[in-house]
Each structure stands twice: as C-alpha cells, then as structure tokens.
Amino acid sequence: MIKFKAPANIALLKYWGKADPLLNIPTTSTISMTLDALSTTTSVDLESNQDVFYLNGHLQNAQETKKVSDFVDLFRTKAQRKDYVLIDSHNNFPTAAGLASSASGYAALAGALNLFFDLNMNFDELSTYARRGSGSATRSLHGGFVLWEKGIDHESSKAHQIDVGDWDIQMIVILCNQNKKKISSRKLMEMTKNESIFYDAWVQQTNALVDLMKQAVMDHDFSLVGTLAQQNAWQMHGTILGNQQPYTYLQARSFEALEILQALKNQGIELYETMDAGPNIKVL
Q1: Which of helix, strand or coil describes residue 66?
Q2: Domain ranges of the chain
Q3: From the CB of residue 156, how many other CB atoms can be counted at a distance below 10 Å?
Q4: What tens digit of pLDDT does each residue of 143-189 get?
Q5: CATH assignment of 2-163, given 3.30.230.10, 3.30.160.20, 3.40.50.720, 3.50.30.30?
Q6: Rounded to whole angstroms, how far apart are CA atoms 168 and 185?
Q7: Is the pTM of this model over 0.90?
Q8: Strand 84-91 vs strand 52-55: parallel, antiparallel, or unpaired?
Q9: Fewer CB within 10 A of the end CB, N or C, for the chain?
C-alpha cells in the first residue's frame, strides 16, 4: 500500500474558467496560499478486477469512481501498466464546500499514483498530471505561495513555488456551512465563461494582476497581497452574477461573517477577506 498526503490551497488570484476543458488549462494564471492544516491523505493498493474508490470511509458510486478511474488511466498509460487500484481517500476538513478538497484530493491521489506506478516524476511534472484531475490540484503539490502559470498545453500549464511562506501572514477559515454545495465549481465556472457579460473583463483584469501579486508575495507586502486578493475575490463573485441566471455561493451566514469582519476593519484591524466557490469565508 502506498500513502500520500497533500494540503489544500486557497487562491489569492482565482481560477475561474478553462481555456481547454479537457486538459484543465485555465484562462488566467493564478497564485495561491497553501494551507498545511487542511489536507487529504490517500492510499492506493492493488485491486483484482476493477477500480474501487472510497472517500471519507464511504464507497463511491459508479459515476464518481469513473471520474477517478479516468484519472488513474493517465498514470496507467504513462507506466504502460494495466493494474486496477483500490483508492482510499480521507479529508480532515469539509468536502465540496469551497475549501479546495478537490485540489488536495487529486494532488494526494497523483502523488500516490506516481509512487504506486514507479513513475518517479518530479513535482513540476507531477503538477501537470494533478491538474488533469482538478485544475487547483496543480498548486497543492507545493508549499507556501504557488504560481500556476496558465500555459498553452499540457506541459506548460504547471505550478511552482514562488515563496516558502515563512513570514507574518496567516489565513483563518470561517466555516459558514459545511454541507456539499449544490452547484459544482466545474459546472458553474463553465456557465460563467459562456454566459457572463463580465467574463472577458475578469480574465483581462486577473491576468494583469499576476505579476503585481507575485512581486507583493516575494516582497512580503501583506497590505498589497491582501488588497489584491480581496479585490480579485469580489470580482470573481461579481462575474458570476453576470451569468444569464445569476448565482451566488454566499449565504446568509457568509454575509453575517463579512459584517463582523467589516466591523473589525472599522476598528483599525488590518484584515482582508477572500471567498471561493462556496459559502465559507477566508481571512488574511
């Protein structure tokens, strides 16, 4: 049995839309912060006649197992092997609630499969495979602050660390709802790309911020990192509201949390919120 553990990551510049849906190549480069306290541990073992997938102790249905089997096929093909596998994956935080469980999940699975099939890929190459399972997973193979360069093809769309993160910055996660979200990120980002009247401006603005955010991270400029992250998060959620059928992941408790954060800001406390595809609020 092979085990591999990978952390979640939260994008400071968001990933929201695919230039190539098959390869999960994004329309924008993104920068994220790794959250070591939130992680997925995945084990892979040999199975006799079909792939089997457990998530948090529950046997997954045929549809979910097919998604994972298709991902395993990438590694089987590269290794020129046909082994079936038993996958047992555990998250130590809520699943599918906007806390990047798919990122840590596919990164952990990619790491375990790399070892299981004796592929010996380095993390740069492995990140291109993790990306095929979940785009954000490409960033979860690295610690600290990570840049995912959008690239133009399978080889060039990959992630690398830009800062180890050993400075005075922390992220707090406010759990507003731990339930599985009703609309997946994958589905809603595709709707936004195809429908939102604001989408082209979102892509242009996000790509324009990449170099500025990268330098702010490398300079350990908390105020600029926070300002850019907060701006980009609200712009992403505003872009979703431009869909033909506007939608928001934010809920009543999300806005209650945001009101509390605003009160703290009014008291002179420097903090910045960021929100992803879910109701939970993250605070820098």
Answers
A1: helix
A2: 2-163, 172-283
A3: 11
A4: 999 999 999 999 999 999 999 999 999 999 999 988 888 898 889 99
A5: 3.30.230.10
A6: 31
A7: yes
A8: parallel
A9: N
